[in-house]
Design goal:
Elements (H helix, E strand, L loop, with lengths): L3 E16 L4 E17 L3 E5 L6 H8 L7 E6 L2 E2 L5 H10 E4 L13 H11 L5 H14 L16 H13 L5 E5 L7 H18 L2 E6 L2 H7 L2 E6 L2 E7 H4 L6 H8 L40 H5 L5 E4 L2 E3 L8
Parallel strand pairs: 3-8, 3-9, 6-7, 7-8
Antiparallel strand pairs: 1-2, 1-4, 4-5, 9-10, 10-12, 11-12
Helix pairs in contact: 3-4, 3-5, 4-5, 5-6
The structure holds iron/sulfur cluster.
The site of iron/sulfur cluster has 13 residues, from loops.
């Protein structure tokens, strides 16, 4: 039986919109609007959706990199959102993040060795020698030679820098890694290498991942379960093998129709979504997807569908989920 490592309940993150000379709050961007999910130990939960759907904000909010508006996040049974400064410091060791742009997250004036060791130094973990040994071992683990530790970030390729970003997170021995678009800035040829490295490290170190990305093929490749987000909400949540093969939400179907089918004999219906994503500052009434949904009926414009478990492990927020 699997156990939840992380439990997110009714997470909300609204960003105030300030306008005018007095910077008065005139509205709210509802970036994350009542999102709930769990991540079991050892699994990868993929969060996917178009840009602006709130997936990145979910990852940052649950790590307390930005404050939540409301909700609860429980990590190994401990509440994260109301944890004290000292507690957060401890929690951060166990919950690490890898960013999309490894270059931006590495200080150009510090050697790679210094950057990777930073967390150990801040948290005062072990002696100087132990820190250096740990950093060297982690470099080798991510496929880089420890002899490169005296070099600077600009001397590395994008793929190497992302390996360094991963080493930097893993040196703290975390149990949860939030991977925020970890391969989107990389050449396609390098993406598979980094994804395979992440899978290998997960097996070897028993890691749990929240994998945030806009690329469905990438998410499908690494995830155990997948949550599909649209305008701040999860609209479908299901095991990887089901979610794109037999979607229970029209939005998932539309997204997956754009992904190349790996088997030449298989076909996928082609659906082209009409219209732009509405603004999260002013989401449509009723079902937020109704302005772009080809299945929308009157009820969709007035009644918001709740995310419900339609069959074991398969959640959908659509009034007509069984007709998708
Ligand atoms: Fe489309 Fe209605 Fe389902 Fe929303 S509830 S996805 S508008 S069919």
């Amino acid at each position: 039986m699997s156990h939840a490592l992380l439990e997110v309940k009714n997470l909300v993150k609204h960003f105030p919109i300030r306008t005018g000379l007095l910077r008065r709050v005139t509205g709210q961007v509802r970036a994350v609007d009542d999102v709930s999910f769990t991540i079991n130990k050892g699994e990868t939960l993929g969060l996917v959706g178009e840009s602006g759907c709130g997936k990145t904000t979910v990852g940052r909010t649950l790590l307390r990199l930005i404050p939540a508006t409301s909700g609860s996040v429980s990590f190994e049974g401990q509440e994260v959102l109301t944890a004290s400064r000292g507690e957060i410091k401890q929690l951060r060791r166990k919950m690490q993040i890898v960013f999309q742009d490894p270059f931006a997250s590495l200080d150009p004036r510090r050697t790679i060795g210094e950057s990777v060791a930073e967390g150990l130094v801040i948290h005062n973990v072990g002696t100087r020698q132990e820190q250096q040994d740990k950093v060297a071992a982690m470099m080798e683990r991510v496929g880089l030679s420890a002899s490169l530790l005296e070099r600077f970030p600009h001397e590395f390729s994008g793929g190497q820098r992302q390996r360094i970003g991963i080493a930097r997170a893993l040196v703290m021995d975390p149990s949860l890694l939030v991977l925020d678009e970890p391969v989107s800035a990389l050449d396609v040829s390098i993406q598979a290498q980094v994804l395979n490295l992440l899978k290998k490290l997960q097996d070897e170190l028993g890691l749990t991942y929240l994998f945030v990305a806009h690329n469905l093929g990438v998410v499908e490749y690494v995830s155990t379960r997948i949550g599909v987000m649209y305008l701040g909400k999860i609209v479908e949540l299901a095991p990887r093998s089901d979610v794109f093969r037999r979607p229970l939400h029209p939005y998932t179907k539309a997204l997956s129709a754009a992904v190349p089918v790996p088997r030449p004999t298989a076909t996928r219906e082609r659906i082209v979504l009409q219209g732009d994503v509405p603004s999260p500052a002013n989401p449509p009434q009723g079902c937020r997807f109704h302005t772009r949904c080809w299945m929308a009926k009157d009820i969709c414009r007035v009644q918001e569908p709740r995310l419900e478990e339609k069959s074991p492990g398969r959640w959908s927020a659509c009034h007509f989920w069984n007709q998708v």
